[in-house]
Design a protein that fits this description.
Elements lengths: L10 H14 L1 H26 L5 H15 L6 H25 L4 H87 L1
Length: 194
């Protein structure tokens, strides 16, 4: 019998295939659309604020970067160790209480109830940690989108200022050349008419 050999893909081809599958996924398309809507909404907000002379893009960028840096992922960073220490001590205390309470039952029931209690505590603590991470994730996503919007607006303003400078520079060159031509023509008319 003949065996059909599977073609072994390189890791780069696997990455490309995974990328294509992800890009065709409806969840990815919906996520892209939602991010684009948020981006445009935030952009319109900051463009309106930018027309106000009291608004500073640089100050807003610094504020957002500071919020991302100091408050970003509080649960994941140093707060996580503190959180684990508190939950661990509470978990241990509750575990000891449950074991002493279940000691009056037979050994099989004691083990079963202990396992159920442990799993319940594990799921409960995972849920609490997960909710905190989700909240931080949405906040950081909003701040990152705002930062990208401000960077785009700032780049557009810089590009517009460069175009204005180039336009002014071209006008100055044109005026100088016209003045030079006018001087040359007036010189010719003086000597030719004499």
């Amino acid at each position: 019998m003949f065996r059909i050999r599977k073609i072994k893909l390189s890791k780069y081809e696997k990455i490309i295939n995974k990328f294509n599958v992800d890009m065709e996924d409806t969840k990815t398309i919906e996520q892209y659309d939602n991010i684009n809507k948020a981006f445009m909404y935030i952009r319109i907000y900051y463009e309106k604020k930018n027309k106000d002379k009291k608004f500073s893009i640089k100050a807003e960028k610094i504020r957002i970067e500071e919020n991302i840096g100091s408050n970003g992922s509080n649960i994941i960073s140093f707060g996580m160790a503190y959180y684990i220490a508190i939950i661990g001590s509470l978990f241990y205390t509750m575990f000891e209480l449950v074991i002493t309470a279940f000691n009056k039952y037979s050994n099989e029931i004691n083990v079963g109830l202990t396992i159920v209690f442990l799993l319940t505590m594990l799921f409960f603590s995972s849920y609490i940690i997960g909710e905190g991470i989700k909240k931080e994730g949405l906040r950081n996503l909003r701040l990152n989108i705002s930062l990208k919007v401000l960077e785009n607006i700032e780049k557009e303003i810089d590009d517009e200022q460069k175009r204005e400078k180039e336009k002014v520079g071209k006008l100055e060159i044109q005026q100088r050349s016209e003045e030079h031509l006018n001087r040359g023509t007036s010189f010719k008319t003086k000597f030719v008419n004499v």
